[in-house]
Amino acid sequence: MKILLVVLSLFTASFYQFSVKSEVKKVIIQDSVSKKPVVLEGDFRSLKGVMHKFSCYCFNGGELKTKEGDKIYVCFPDEKVNVSCTHIKVKGKYVTRKNAPGANNPCPSGEMTYFEATSYVCK
Known about the structure:
Blueprint: H1 2-34, E1 38-46, E2 61-65, E3 71-75, E4 87-99, E5 110-122
Parallel strand pairs: 3-5
Antiparallel strand pairs: 1-2, 1-4, 2-3, 4-5
């Protein structure tokens, strides 16, 4: 009986922690979609010129993986920016963009929230 209670308690605590963590992330993202500037840091992999689902929302961007293991899509609005570093610190905000493709656009319709960088520093 005690083992069952301990397992149940651990499961409940883990589930609660996961739920709280998810809710906190949602609040942070929703809050920063408004106006607050945010700074993120992590390993970066450019997707510029790569056929990827993110390409339907941003031409010049990539994936940032934080030390917590979160993968965040980052967009650089200036197409001339060429990010060649593997570890990066970016400042910007979260934005949500809807995609409604036309007849000549191969991208599906949808919506995505991603990070729009206003500045970056290679680390």
